[in-house]
């Protein structure tokens, strides 16, 4: 059994060591969200009992979020002064009439992978996949199923380890 993941852009495989009924590997990862998949006897598989999401191509991958260690006793951390903000960071040029005639920038492709646009899990059609961190706190429009006279907007945000998606359905004729 091997594992391959997004921590190195899917470029290397790590062999897992058998320990009783389990297979294990120790890998030091920086804080972030990583997708991974197992290779069992040459076949790519995901673990259905672990958190999984769809990738950009519709494949199901397991996902793990590595968080930075936060000590319990915050008082033990020495305080520090915030550096001064340079004026150039908030002194923007005034907008001109040319700024209003430009086309808006294209929406990044990963924002199309919202909970409203992701296909359902075959094994559990009522379960939603874990949202990718890049779509959190963005408002998005459903593109696959909305009718001609219905406008569907949604936003997913995170509170601690929970995710909340708010969906607004409205008539385009209203």
UniProtKB/TrEMBL annotation:
Pfam families for this protein: AMPK1_CBM (PF16561), AMPKBI (PF04739)
GO CC annotations on file: cytoplasm
Domain Association with the SNF1 complex (ASC) stretches: 83-172
InterPro entries linked to this entry: AMPK1_CBM (IPR032640), ASC_dom (IPR006828), ASC_dom_sf (IPR037256), Ig-like_fold (IPR013783), Ig_E-set (IPR014756), KINB (IPR043554)
Family: Belongs to the 5'-AMP-activated protein kinase beta subunit family.
PANTHER family, per database record: SNF1-RELATED PROTEIN KINASE REGULATORY SUBUNIT BETA-1 (PTHR46316), SNF1-RELATED PROTEIN KINASE REGULATORY SUBUNIT BETA-2 (PTHR46316:SF2)
Protein's UniProt name: Association with the SNF1 complex (ASC) domain-containing protein
């Amino acid at each position: 059994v091997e594992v391959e993941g997004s921590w190195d852009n899917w470029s290397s495989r790590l062999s897992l060591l058998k320990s009783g009924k389990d297979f294990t590997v120790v890998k030091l990862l920086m804080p972030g969200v990583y997708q991974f998949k197992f290779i069992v006897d040459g076949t790519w598989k995901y673990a259905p009992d672990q958190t999984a999401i769809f990738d950009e191509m519709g494949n199901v991958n397991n996902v793990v979020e590595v968080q930075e260690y936060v000590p319990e006793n915050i008082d033990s951390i020495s305080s520090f002064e915030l550096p001064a903000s340079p004026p150039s960071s908030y002194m923007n040029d005034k907008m001109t009439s040319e700024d209003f005639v430009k086309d808006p920038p294209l929406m990044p492709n990963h924002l199309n992978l919202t909970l409203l646009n992701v296909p359902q899990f075959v094994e559990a059609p009522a379960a939603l996949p874990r949202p990718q961190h890049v779509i959190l706190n963005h408002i998005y429009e459903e593109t696959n199923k909305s009718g001609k006279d219905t406008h569907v907007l949604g936003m997913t945000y995170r509170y601690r380890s929970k995710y909340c998606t708010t969906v607004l359905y409205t008539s385009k004729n209203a």
